What does this fold into?
Amino acid sequence: MTDTPSARAARLAHLRRAELAKGDPVALPLTLATMFHLPGDPAGYAQYGRFSNPTWDAVEKMLTHLEGAPALGFPSGMAATAAVFFGLLKSGDRILLPSDGYYTTRVLTERFLTRLGVTYDTRPTSTFLDGGFEGYRLVFVETPANPGLDICDLVAVCEAAHAAGALVVADNTTMTPYGQRPLDLGADIVVAADTKAPNGHSDVLFGHVASRNAEIMAAVSDWRKLAGGIPGPFEAWLVHRGLETLHVRFERMCNTAEAIAPRLAAHPAVSKVRFPGLESDPSHNLARAQMDRFGFLIGVTLGSEAAAERFINDCALIQPATSFGGVHTSAERRARWGDAVDQGFVRLSIGCEPADELWAALEESLNRSEG
Ligand SMILES: *Cc1c(COP(=O)(O)O)cnc(C)c1O
It folds into this structure.
């Protein structure tokens, strides 16, 4: 079988099969354990719940399969990013962050890394290559960036960053491994919030780190074990279940987003739409080159804060909520958190509702939004 997203999805559904003994349950058992039966020499066995857990192993096996690289689970997306920073950086290192990416990554850096002697700069994703990467130990990219959905050229960034001696970390939360695999494009490390589409049911926080570099994975694994930022087995079990349907949900969500984005763009109440799948989008050509799909997030700008709030809150098929990637369509006005976006900017996360019904509800709410 070739190594396409569809081929990976097909194999994912049968990953456990090779390990099953006759009579074993086909579904993954949830193992809640701090202690393991351990007489004598403990080497090579499960030892303690902060070090290992069979339910983590199962979800990490899935993530490893999807990323094409060893993966480790974390209790949230931010725990994964923090493990990379605290596991790999040291005093004197300088890092580069996107100015328009997930804001918590910048706050974590400003609040806790700078006082350990790590310095940082920020740069917009759309012009991320400008200025080069000389002097950076680590370059952190997020593409498409949440929430503005600008894109940077991963191959070009990785080449230039590597030439300057920097490691490249890609936050792939907005795309999932079915939409884009930054490691295949040259990134050293992927971090992602499986809280979003991979779990998909808005009931678990989870994250992972993946890398083909064994030294990096050893440092991140030691950080997790020693700092204790470990995932709960039940959360891992739920994410394992979520990942079983990620492909079918992601395809549906991306297809619907592609159908809906042009209709949004043509609606008179909408002043601007950002979606990498629109031919008119500044990111379109790059998205075609490096992404397998265009994703399920759409940036929609309405005429005013009030119009945006009415559109979100009065639509029968929009869940007003922060976060994204659930089976239900959700949306929020990002300016309410202080993101540097227009007051009328709405991040719309397309869910699994049938496309025509969803569009009818969105259109009705848009028609009413101007008040
Ligand atoms: C949500 C998100 C995170 C953080 O994930 P948590 O699970 O909430 O910690 C990191 N990066 C991006 C791009 C996100 O959207």
Observations:
- The chain has two domains: 5-243, 247-369.
